[in-house]
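Two folds, back to back.
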Amino acid sequence: MGGLRKLETPFVAAGPCGAAVRDCLKHLTSQDERVLRAVGAHQGALASRDLKARCANGLEHSGDTWAARKRDLTKESSSRIAGAITKATHDQWALARRCQAAHIRQLDVGIRTLRHRLSLPLGEKGTKRTAGGYRSKGEWFRKSRRLAALEARHAAAVGDWQAGRVRVVRGGKRLLNTRHHLTEARLTEDQWRQRWEAERWFLAADGESGKRFGNETIRVTPDGEVSIKLPVPLAHLANTRHGRYTLTARIAFAHRGAEWADRIEANRAVAYRIHLNTDRGRWYLTASWQRPAVQTIPLETARARGMIGVDTNADHFAAYRLDRHGNPVGDPHRFGYDLSGTAGHRDAQIRHALTRLINWAVRVGVAAIGIEDLDFTAEKTREKHGGRKRFRQLISGIPTGKLKARLVSMAAERGLAIVAVDPAYTSLWGAQHWQKPLTTPRRKMSRHDAAGIAIGRRALGHPVRDGVSPARTELRAWGRTAPPPHDRSDRAGHRTAQAAPGTQGREGTRPPTTDRPPGGPPPSGKRKREPSASNTVRDAPSTQQWVQDSLMCTG
C-alpha cells in the first residue's frame, strides 16, 4: 500500500431535514396582481435597505444592531415581516461569507500550483499527483504574470475577509451583468427590467408554531384560500378585516398535500413564498417546513440485503447490483441524462435518471445505494490541468452537490439509505480486477460499470481488489469459490469461501469441471478417457426396426 492515501470509512448519509411543495396561483384577477406587485416592491425595497445596513456593520454586528434594524422596519411593515426580512438578510450575508472563504481557498490552491510549476525546469514531466514544468519560456512568462494577478486578488480577498466586507447583489450578479448583453441573452430591455424587478421583490413569510394554520403573514386555509397581511403603508388595499387581502385563487398541493394539510390543521409552522415567473407569466406559491431529525439506519442494516453501486459520470449513472457477500448479480444498468441546455432542463434530466435508478433499486429489493462522496473543488482549477479545457469542463459539468441532495431526499421517500464511500481508486481498481473477468460475448463491461462494482464492494465493507479470475467468477454465480489446489496433499483443504446457509442455489448442480467455461475455447488435444463400451443391453445400439405385433392389439 505504499504511496496510496488512506481511505475514508463509508457512512450512511443523513436524511433530508425539510420539505417544500409548490403550486400555481391560477385565475388571479388584475387587482390581485396589482396588490402582489405593490407588496413585493415595497417589501423588496425594505429588504435591500436592510441588507445594505447589515453589510455596512460588517464584523461589528451584534444583537443590539439587529434589534435596531428590526424596529426601523417594523414602522413600515409589521413585526413579523420585519423579522422575516432581517432573518433573510443574515442568511444572505452568511452565505456571502462562506463563498468568500471558498474563493480564498481556491486562490490558495492556484497560487501553490503556479509556484511549484514555475520552480521546475522547462519541459520537466509531471506525475499523476503533481504537474510538471512548463513547455516553453513564453508559457513560463505568461504563468508568472498570472501568478502576480492571483496574488493581488488573494491579498484583496483576504483584506475583505478580515474587514468583514462582502459584496452581495439582490437579484443576482449574473442577471445584473445580463443588462449589458441583452442581444446574446435574447432579451429586450423591458423583459430584462421585468425579470430584474421580480427577482428583487420580497413576498415571503416564516412559519410560526401555535399560530392559526402555522403562519400569520401569509395564511393558507385547508380549502386552499390564500390571504396576505398587508404592510402598514398598503393597508388601504385590504379587502377583508384586520388589514388582510384575500386572493381569488385557490391552491391544492398535489405532492405532499396530505402532509401539508396535517401540519396546518395542527397549527404547526409552515413558511410560504410567492414569486412571479416572468417567462411564463405565472404566479407560484411555495410552502416549506422543517422535519424532525430522523435517525439513520445502522450501516450493517443497510448492508443486509446487498447494495447497488453507482458510478457518477458526465452523461450517465453506471449501476451494478451486488449481494451482501460482494458478488455481482445480473448485468450492469446505465441511466443516462443530458446536462446541456437550461438549468431547468438539466435539473429535470437529473431527477428523471435518479427516479429510474431508485425504482430499479426498489424492484430488486436492496436496502441501500452506494455512491461516491465526490467533491471536485480542487480538481477543476485552471492551474492544475492547464490547457485541458474540455477535461475541466467535463468535471465542472458533473452536478455533485445537487446530485447528492436530490438523491438523499428522493431515496428517503422510498425507504432507501445512501452509503457514501471514498472515491479513491474506484475506477482504476474496478477496471483492473472486475472489467475483464465479467466481460462475456453477451455482456459488455465498461470501465464505469466495473467502477460501480468497486463502489458497491467498498460500501459493503469488502476489499475492492479481490483478484478474481473468470473461472472463479463463474463458480461464484453458483455459490462458492474455486476449490484449493491438489498438487500437494498438505496444501489441499476446504474451500476458501463457502456460500451462506440461506443462499439460494447453494445445493444446486455445479457446472462440470471437464467442460469448457461459457464463452471459452474448445478443449485442445484428445480426451483423457475414451468412452467405454456399454455393459447393459438397454444401452447397446440397436440395428433392428421395432414393428408392432398385430396379435398384441386388442379391440
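---
second:
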Amino acid sequence: MNPFNSHTPFTYGLLRQLLLLSLLIPLTAQVNAQEHLVTSQAQYQQVLKQLQPGDSIILQNGTWQDFEIVFTAKGTAKHPVTLTAQTKGSVILSGQSNLQLAGEYLQVSGLVFKDGFTQTNEVIAFKKSDTELANHSRITEVVIDNYNNPDRQMSDNWIGMYGQHNRLDHSHFVGKRNAGVTLAVRLEGEQNQQNHHRIDHNYFGPRPILGSNGGETIRIGTSHHSLTNSFTVVENNYFDRCDGEVEIISIKSGKNRIQNNVFNSSRGTLTLRHGNGNIIDSNIFFGNGIDHTGGIRIINRDQTVTNNYLEGLTGTRFGSGFTIMNGVPNSPINRYHQVVNANINHNSFINLDHIELAAGSDSERSAPPKDSTLTQNLFINPQSPLSLHDDISGLRFSDNITNFASKDLNPIIKKGISTHNITLTRAANGLLYPSDTRLAQYGVSSTLIPTTKQQTGPTWYPKSEPTVEFQSGKVIKVSNADGELGNAVAAALSGDTLLLSDGQYNIDTLLAINKTLTFKAANTHKAIVSFERPSLFEIQNNGNLQLEGLVINGQLSPDAPGNSVIRTLKWGMLTNYRFDMSNSIVEQLNNSNAFHFFDSGSRAFADTINVNNSQFHLISGDVFRLNKETDDIGIYNAEYLNLTHNQFDDIGGIVATVYRGGTDESTFGPHVLVSHNQFTHVGKGQQNQTESILNLHGVQVSLIAHNTFTDSASISVFHTVGEPQTTIANNQLINTPAPQVTEFVTQGKHTANINNNKVQTR
C-alpha cells in the first residue's frame, strides 16, 4: 500500500508518525554525539571502533611519538566524524608518524607534524588502501613543518589527495627538503578521477632548492592519466619562496581551476604540463627581481589564462615570466602536446625579463602553437621581452597595449598590440594599473584583491623566517687559549659571531658547524688558525659558515691524501647550506699530494658559495670540489659558486670543479661566476689529470670575465643539457691555453660567448 495515495485514517496516522520520527532522528543524533578525549594510542584504537556520526576524537595535548594514525569512520554531511587536538597546535606528531583517513564526511584539524618523517609514501593520505578512500572529507588547520626523510633523494609526498569531494584548507606546509611533491592529487582509478577537490587558504612556505627533479609544490595528476579530468580547484593560497624546482604547480590533468593565488618570490612557474581545458584565473605573481622567478607556462589544448597579474619576474626559457611552448607532432602522452585554442586575455605582464613564444622549438618539438588568441593584455617593459623561437602565426594578437617601441615587434604581433605612453599607478590592492582611465579595460581588473599571507594557514602557527642571517646574533670574543675556540663553537647560538683576537690558534679537534656561525678576526689577518686534524671545519645539517679576515695555515695537518680545510658531511646532508669567505688568506695546504680547501660530500647541496677578496697560496690539491654527484640523474652540489676579486698562486689542482650529469631539465643551476681574479701557476700539479684550472660540466650559467691567468692550465667547459649559457670574456691569458668549450647538447639552444680575451705568450 502506498500511504501517499491512500485516504484511510490509518494511513494518515502512520504518515504523521513517520514525519515526527524524521524530525526527531537528526535531533537525537545530535544529542548523542560523543567527545572522546584519548591519552594513548591504545585508547585511540578502542574509541575508533565505536564512532558514530557527529562524534569526535580529541588527542590530548603533548608529543605523540611514532603514531601511525588510521582514521576510519562514516559521518554525514551535517554530522561529520572529527579528529582534532585538545588545543590546536599543542598536539605534536613526531618520529615516524603519519595519518591515513578513509570513509565519508571525516574532518581532521589542529595537528602538527614535526621532528620526524614518514616511513610511507605520504605524511597524510586521503586513503587507507587503494579500495578504502576518503570522500567528502576535510583536513583543516594542520601543520607539516620540516618533516623530512634524512635522505634528501628518498621521495615521499607530504599530502596525497585521493577519493572525491575532499577539501584541504587553512593549513601550513614549510621546509620540505627531500624529494617528492608537497601536495599530490592522485588520479589512478575512476574512484579518484573527476574528484572536485578543493585546496584553499593554505600557506605553502619556503621550500628550498632541491637541486634535482621532484621538487614540485603541487602536482595534479600524472602524465599517464593526463587526458582525464580532475576538476580540482586551487584557490586563495599563498606560495612563499617555493623554490624546489622549475614547476611550482604542475598540472597534469584536465578541467582544473587555479584562481586567486599569490606566488611570492618563488623560483619556477605554474605549468600546464599535461591535460586540457584548465582555467588559470586571477593569480598574482610577485618576482621581486629574484633570480629565476617565473609565471605561467602553457602546453596542451583549450587552456584559459585570464586576469592574472605578473610583475618583476626574471626567469628565462621554460621558467620565464610567460611561456607558450612548442609541441611534439602526434605526441606520446608523456611528452609535449601542441598548444591549441589557448585563450589569453586581460592579463598584466609588467617588467618581465622574458616572454617566450613557441619555446623549446627543436627537431622533436616542432609543432608551434595554433588557433590561439591574446586579447586586451597589458605589456609593460623598458624594452620588448618577447622572444620568438618558431612560427607564431597560430597566435592571434588582438587589441593589446604596450609601452615598448613597435619597431621591436614581429609583424604578426604588431598587428594586435598598440604602443602608448603609459604611466602606472600602484592601487590600494598593491597592483599597478595604467593611470589613464581610458586604458582601464586592459590588464587585470581593478577589483582583483590579492590573497594575503595572513589569510592563509592556521592563525595559531607562526610563519617564521627559515634563514638565520650571518652576524645576526651576539658577538662572542675568543682568545687563542687552548680549547677556547672549540668551547665557543659549542656554546654559540645560530647567528652568533666568534670574534678572534690576535694570535696563533692551534686547533686539535674537528669544528662541527651545525648552526649559522661567523668566524671573524678582530684585526684582519692577525688571527692565524692551524689545525692538526685532516679537516678544520665540517658543515653539518643546519650549518652555515662564514669566515672573515682569517689566516688559515695547513702546516700542522697530517700527511695524508684527501685533507681539506672545509668539508661537508661525507654523505647525505638534508639541509642546504651557505658558505661565505672574505678578506682571508689560505696558505700552505701542501704537506700531502692532494690537500684541498673545500670538499663537498655526496648529496650535499649549497645554496651559495661566495668567496671574495681572499688569497690562496701553495695548495697541492683543488680549491673547490663540487663534483660528487656522478650518477648522472641531474643532481649537483651547489646552486651558485661566486669567486670575485681573489688571488690564486701555486695551486696544483683545479680551482673549481663543478659537475652536473644527466639530461634532466627540472632545475636552473649550477651557476658559476668567476670575475676579477688573478691566477698564477695554477692547475699544473701532477694530481690534476684534467689539466684544467676550471672544469665546468653541465653548468647552466657561467660567466668568467675580467680575470688574469698566468702560466696556468686551461678553462674547460662541457655543455651537456638544457640551454647552457657560457660567457668567457675580457680575460688576460698569459702563457695559458685558450678556453675549451665542448658541446654535447644536441637539441635546443646553447651559447658559448668567447670574446675579447687577450692571449699572450712569453
